[in-house]
Specification:
- The protein has 96 residues and is mostly helical.
- It has one domain (7-95).
- It has helices spanning 7-24, 29-36, 40-49, 54-61, 64-67, 72-75, 81-91.
């Protein structure tokens, strides 16, 4: 059964998971940007908002060194199956 989170609980969880992701990359946003094939400005936006984008979470799923340590659904528990499928179809070729 899924855990029910208040909007604040959800935001706190996403912030915590983003912080774990940043720690995995040595707190170097530029290194995370390189791994996920996004600009450093994109990562800075995630940090400012306190959560990774849905696409960013799926990009984590495409990087073995990251997805072995952090699960995309922990980064963005609000991802639907349809969103996952759509985003993966779009970004998967970048990681092949």
């Amino acid at each position: 059964m899924s855990e029910i989170l208040t909007p604040q609980d959800l935001q706190n969880k996403m912030q915590k998971e983003l912080n774990k992701l940043l720690e995995l990359t040595g707190n170097k946003p530029s290194w995370l940007a390189d791994l996920l094939k996004v600009s450093p400005q994109v990562v800075s936006g995630w940090i400012d908002r306190g959560r990774i984008s849905k696409e960013g979470a799926m990009r984590v799923n495409c990087v073995p060194v990251l997805n072995a340590r952090i699960y995309y659904k922990d980064l963005r528990p609000d991802l639907s199956h349809t969103q996952i499928t759509t985003i993966l179809e779009k970004i998967k070729p970048e990681f092949e």
